[in-house]
DNA sequence: CGATAATCGAGACGGTACGTCGAGTCTTTAG
DNA sequence: CTAAAGACTCGACGTACCGTCTCGATTATCG
């Protein structure tokens, strides 16, 4: 679906349900795709998305923002949906550094703060905009989970695993459930209640629920 | 905004940001509204919503489904959004009976099961469809929270309060956090991961996280 | 193709290859077509046509000129071509009064002058714009000939027939050829050479060619 | 505008409004233009023109037909219009041999037949396609008249002039009018009525109108 | 009872965005 | 410098949907 993406990150292409190959006739003839347009378009999409939301985002607006023709967009993405999800997943990669300070309390607190900050930005808004489409767009759902939910969940699990190795976690701790609850609590606040993802909330979540369940 | 709704439930009209008054000119002149059309339209809206989702839901489709004219819809709701939220909130009322068996374990378990079942139905799908619109539609957000989030949260809190009165809950239990986590876990599964809201999940949530945090 | 046309002039619908029935669900339900929009659109089309020519005429421009939506145009005509030909044929009707002064010289002269004036206006420009499409649009060709060429040819023939009855025309006069040459000369000037269709030209055509061939 | 054309026919370049100089930088550096591409492109243009008409003719189609890139076309002609007119005017040259048999009747008849045959071919179709553009493209109009109308008119006039010298033409004959009518009659049939340019028509034109007016 | 007024289904209305396609330009690799 | 290939910007195409308005036909209350 996106030649630029699949071309630039070969090791991820297999894992992603979105960045299917089907294109990237790069060694062929003709003028190659202008890589700067990819970035410009994704950037424009993110700007428009942050300004007006998913539904009010129009392809014309994105094109105008990037001083591009609509055809240049449709050459890369088949629909508004794909443009948006690719734009987001692209930005999700490596935005939250994995903490490792030898303490589950500190690692977990740092991760939650970082993730909360991350979610409070444009990506969070974009993700929210996509939720309503998930049930009717299986490919989007797969990509969304793979690049939005899984990395965060896996990082969280690694944090806890290191705590287990250090003996900080009690034996019967419901690790899976804690991992699920951590993400759920943040996202629920962000998307449903609309309350702020501030440090108070993070602390309460950490010290009232997650840590007590773990140790 | 909705004559039918505000007319039939006068005590809720004040509390709701949606069901504003302006209406129910029933004893006026002219042909009175056909009450059967209200139900038919809401029904049609729900069908279409379940079939194609919020974005692909068109007013023409709803009208056609209900064999009604579009004006008949717009006479009752000001927009597609209002139609959908009213349709949903209407159905939310009194769909989950409040359990009271003298045991926090049993009450909580029953509530979670009932809520999970409820969410797995069309209302859950509809709610998911609305999430993406919340940030850009303050009225919708208010109505959504009031009729979707609050009732469930309040019921949950009452359950726990009764447990406190019975001495089942320990003193320092993080009640607010538990209430928030319960809802968050269910909704996160429903809308984000797409995994089933089955009894196994409910049990795990209950016995691994909620109850341990409470007692 | 055009409900308004075929509905309003039933006796012409059969003769015309363009104004096919297929629509005119007039006695049906729903809001009837606004007849004033027909005129406004045709008027706008003619204005735009005169300004920029056929190729540069865009449906958006016509719609904007008439303060109408594009759908309102496409509801009446299936394409730009149909809009233009219907606009023109509509205006051709009864634009040249048939002279009858009891003299072939005077009748013919008056007719040629009137036709020359008529062709020099917007209809002439529009007709020229359509010529290039005729070979690839059989329906257009039929309509064009029927409403543009035939009326003029028939009127010319009636003029001459009256002259024959009055004994002004010699027996062996090549009436068909004269009729053909009269139209051809005017149209050739208009569309091919671009020279003006002035009185000098009309007189020369009349006294140097047409009358000598007839009497 | 067209290097190839102006290079190959230097004596006509001055007279033509189209074949401007700028030209055949042949002794320059780099790879020389492939002369076979000129013919291939003109040929492709003519084919496409005959198939689908001027409006539906696309540069991509011409390029594909000639297995050429679009740049190869635009290097030679500045626009679609120029390509078409150059293609046509190129083919007009020397397609009608000038008859000279010492008899106005025979010369005129032969010329009319040859011209009718010529018009019935692809050039006639192409010419028709251009008519609608003439009012809005002055350069095209000039080129069209110069290479399409004038040569035929001049040849016709020379024919008649020779007849005058031979004493075949009466003194007061309206030569200009006859010349104009001859061309107009053929073109009118070709482009407007669509009737065939057959020998019957040519004979009728010749013996019923042109010759009687001349002698 | 008749007049008045609001309802109903149906669908036309002005707008706006869609996704496609064509014109003419630019940029690559290959010669 | 030219060739083929094809990406680029721009803008028109014809379609679909939104929310409004207008039609003929009901269906109630009011005078």
From TrEMBL, chains A, B, C, D:
Matching Gene3D superfamilies: Homeodomain-like (1.10.10.60), Tetracycline Repressor, domain 2 (1.10.357.10)
DNA-binding region: 58-77
MF terms in GO: DNA-binding transcription factor activity; transcription cis-regulatory region binding
Domain HTH tetR-type: 35-95
Region span, Disordered: 1-35
Family annotation (InterPro entries): DNA-bd_HTH_TetR-type_CS, Homeodomain-like_sf, HTH-type_TetR-like_transc_reg, HTH_TetR, Tet_transcr_reg_TetR-rel_C_sf, TetR_C
Tree of life domain: Bacteria
Compositionally skewed regions (Low complexity) per UniProt: 1-19
Keywords, in A-Z order: DNA-binding, Transcription, Transcription regulation
Protein name per UniProt: AcrR family transcriptional regulator
């Amino acid at each position: 679906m996106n030649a630029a993406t699949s071309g630039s990150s070969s090791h991820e292409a297999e894992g992603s349900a979105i960045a299917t190959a089907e294109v990237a006739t790069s060694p062929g003839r003709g003028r190659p795709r202008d890589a700067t347009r990819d970035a410009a378009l994704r950037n424009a999409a993110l700007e428009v998305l942050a300004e007006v939301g998913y539904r009010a985002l129009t392809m014309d607006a994105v094109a105008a923002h990037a001083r591009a023709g609509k055809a240049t967009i449709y050459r890369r993405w088949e629909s508004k949906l794909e443009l948006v999800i690719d734009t987001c997943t692209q930005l999700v990669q490596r935005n939250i550094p994995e903490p490792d300070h030898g303490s589950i309390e500190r690692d977990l607190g740092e991760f939650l703060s970082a993730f909360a900050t991350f979610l409070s930005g444009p990506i969070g808004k974009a993700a929210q905009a996509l939720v309503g489409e998930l049930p009717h767009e299986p490919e989007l759902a797969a990509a969304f989970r793979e690049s939005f939910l899984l990395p965060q969940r896996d990082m969280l699990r690694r944090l806890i695993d290191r705590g287990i190795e250090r003996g900080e976690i009690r034996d019967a701790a419901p690790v899976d459930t804690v991992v699920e609850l951590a993400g759920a609590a943040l996202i629920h606040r962000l998307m449903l209640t609309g309350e702020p993802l501030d440090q108070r909330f993070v602390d309460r979540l950490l010290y009232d629920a997650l840590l007590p369940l773990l140790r």
